[in-house]
Every structure is written in C-alpha cells, then in structure tokens.
Amino acid sequence: xxxxxxxxxxxxxxxxxxxxxxxxxxxxxxxxxxxxxxxxxxxxxxxxxxxxxxxxxxxxxxxxxxxxxxxxxxxxxxxxxxxxxxxxxxxxxxxxxxxxxxxxxxxxxxxxxxxxxxxxxxxxxxxxxxxxxxxxxxxxxxxxxxxxxxxxxxxxxxxxxxxxxxxxxxxxxxxx
Length: 176
Hints:
Radius of gyration: 15 Å
Number of strands: 13
Number of helices: 1
Strand content: over 45%
Order of helices and strands: EEEEEEEEHEEEEE
Structural class: mainly beta
C-alpha cells in the first residue's frame, strides 16, 4: 500500500511517501523543514505480529543515521548492540516527522469510544535523530477520532484515522 501525507503545519512543511506492508513493515521518505532547516529522512520500520515495533532504521541525507531494535522482552539496543536501558518499558517508537508512528498504538490499543490508553514511546526528533522517552496518552473521542497527548511536553492533537486505523488527518497542535 502506498500512502502520501502532507504536513498542514505552515512553519514546518513536509511531504511523505510511505510504502506500507500492512502491518509488518513500513518504508518512508519525508522531505521537510524543521526548526528552519530542510531535511530528507528515509526510514524503515519492522513491526511484530502484535503491532509493536521491533526495528527502526532512520537515515538523513546528510549521512546521520539511527538504528534501534527491540527484543520480545522489551529490551532496546543500538545498531552496535549496546543496550539502551533508558528506553526500557517503551512499547512504541514515535518519529516526529511521520503520522505512521501514531497509527501503530491506535491500532494496538483498540480503544472503545471514551477509552484511554497510556504508553511510553522512544520519541525520535527530526532532524537531530535524538531519542528520548515520551509518556503518551491516546483517547478515542469518536468512531475515527483520537486525542493524542504527550504527557511530558503538554503537546496535544486531534487525530483522524480511516477504518484500518491509518492516520488520515493530524492537524496543527491544540496547544504548544
């Protein structure tokens, strides 16, 4: 399945082409501007049968890259094999530049309307590729709508999905 997303944020425009093998693998390329700097990000995400990320590879056109893997026991490692204990307990990844990484927890949480699910994600900033832990909350507000909240930063957004849970609209933040 091929998907094209366009950012609605005038300050940080972007365009993404995603090739998705539902729901096992994703390959995306994002061309955008963040913090006033243009970037081109290519990423690959491997997904387990239960909808959790098992490997993430990111590469920027300037040569910087990131490679993370997650074991079935929830242990995260860098490409060189070194453990990343600060990411222990993270069930998801959240790449700043793509709404795909909101799709995975929405599908996996399978919330009823009014239901809420909290999780910890390895949040990847773009273009720095720095990784931090983000405590996140998803609340299902309608048949195809969710409220996303980053519990640490205060960022929140309303997300619209299609029937398969794929994000179709993620407008500007409700508060920044």
